[in-house]
Amino acid sequence: MGTALQKTIHQLKSENREFFHMALSVDCVILGFDENELKVLLIKSDLEEFSDQWSLLGDLVRPDENLDSASYRVLKERTGLDDVFLEQVYTFGDVNRHPAGRVITTAWYSLINIKDHQMSLAHNELHWHPVSEITTLAFDHKKILDTCLHQLQSKIDEHPIVFNLLPEKFSLRELQSLYESIHGTKLDRRNFRKKFFLMDWLIDVNELEQDVPHRPGKLYRFNADRFSDGKKVKLQEHA
Question: Which of 14, 63, 90, 199 has the fewest other C-beta atoms within 10 Å?
């Protein structure tokens, strides 16, 4: 039975040789919030075809690793980060998306507090770039970034995932600025605050902002107890 199965697999590979000459890759969209701007972590492409262009963090999936293992390996090798949760977003398979040949990639994204994560530099230049200033990226990475942003925009009004981008204590000014940077539009101050108080997502910590150039505002923290299962907010932990 074993020999027959081996012959069947060998025959399958011979008859469909071209299907076994494709590669898989992972691309990581790491988003952060700093200086009132939504930013994405980019790295200089090391391919001649994309000389001096920026790209997302990614790599080919090795024959002996799973997709999720590959995504965490990429982060660890390129940045030293190993304490963030990556959420799978979409798979991109345009025929000519990679100059080296047929490569299908799966995109993952994560939201992190930039100030709480110290990154190491490896291989190429690594930088946080304001999302609003990005017009082109290597490969089809602009399409991947836009897809992840669209998913984020569709989730933040119902799922409290954006709090991973903020410090433990934050002002309503910071929170609104974050939402505006994600949606790419200005929001009405009064309606925004009313909405959050009605949702009961915030807890007043009875403290005021310090060392700010404007009138100090109240500080709040995320009401994690509001979500008993915790699944919607644990984006910083391994699954």
Answer: 63
